[in-house]
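Encode chain A's predicted structure.
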Amino acid sequence: MSTKQILVIDNECYIQEIIQIALETISGWQVFTAGSGREGLAMAEQSQPDAILLDVMMPDMDGLTTFAKLQENNKTQAIPVILLTAKVQAADQQRYRDLGVKATLSKPFDPLQLPTQISDVLGWAT
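Encoded structure for chain A:
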């Protein structure tokens, strides 16, 4: 089985770092990070990760705009996206699912549970 590759798109460096440490240490996954939607779009196309963790609230290009651009690109539209957000309401979650987002995880999150949550959402064996 090959190592899973995850792209984290979040403008907060410390969030990127926490996620990267948790996923690499606990699951042995390879983690790439991007600090903006634009950087994330380029990295997603280039690295073709197995999944993307995408922050909703970012300056310049927010997560939903970034997600829409991922969906418009034939090279990235099949990559599953999990949103990370501090504002999780049932109506928003349903709207995100309707757009094609795999799941929404709330911030703050438990880094020790994150690999299991991602695996459960995406149907990956742990």
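Helices lie at 13-27, 37-47, 63-72, 90-99, 114-122.
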